[in-house]
Amino acid sequence: MDDKPIIAGRDSTWRGTLAKLAVVVALILLANFAASKLIEALEIQIWPSHVEIIDRAVLVSVILYVVLMATPFLPGIEIGLALMVMLGPKGVIVTYIATLLALNLSFAVGRVFAAHLLVSLLHWLHLRRAAAMLERFNATEPERRLKFLAENTHGGSIPLLLNHRYLLLAILLNLPGNVLIGGGGGIAMMVGMSRLYSFPRYLALISVAILPGPVLVMLSKYI
């Protein structure tokens, strides 16, 4: 008899969690829809008839690209591809620099981001175990966090992934569909928040990791 209220309470908690996750997903989808509509509304033309408009259009495109790339779960690759394809080698260089800027901006935001806000979100979603672990993780000194994760996560591959975390980051940044886990901006923000990556090594890594896209565009131009 006493088990029924416990089971009912768990069912209610899971229903609440799923409902709140649905709200979060809906907000993300709405933000993506709004961003797409914004791009369409701006009707960015890289090749208008006047030079002054060309400069202005490229500037607006680059700014919008950086903002979208730096923001978790928002699309930005369409603008980057348009710049690279339409402007040729110059567009490739501009897009590469803008991508570096966006990912460094996200990393910096992650470094100063109040982690308790993420903990509060997990509590709101009734993910109490994850919230408790994140609280303990944040309370751990940065130099001891790798050991903390190795000791408090299950799975034989976890230590291997932690030891090769820079390679893992490069793979995630180039993973098709990574928008589902936050996109480049979300990944960079979480990396900054974790404090498991030193900034010089992070910068060196992303400088190489984001090269495949521009290189492929350049090759497609000359092959």
Walk me through this protein's architecture.
The chain is mainly alpha-helical and 223 residues long. The chain has one domain (3-222). It contains twelve helices and no strands. The protein has helices spanning 3-42, 51-70, 77-87, 89-112, 115-124, 128-139, 145-152, 158-163, 165-173, 183-194, 199-209, 212-222. The radius of gyration is 21 Å and the shape is globular.
Task: Provide the fold topology.
Layout: H1 3-42, H2 51-70, H3 77-87, H4 89-112, H5 115-124, H6 128-139, H7 145-152, H8 158-163, H9 165-173, H10 183-194, H11 199-209, H12 212-222
Entry summary:
With 223 residues, this protein is an all-alpha fold.
Structural class: mainly alpha
In terms of DSSP E residues, the strand content is: under 5%
Oligomeric state as shown? single chain
Ranges with pLDDT <50 over ≥5 residues? none
What is the 3D form? globular
Q: How many structural domains does the protein architecture include?
A: 1
Helix content: over 70%
**What is the string of SSEs from the N terminus onward?**
HHHHHHHHHHHH
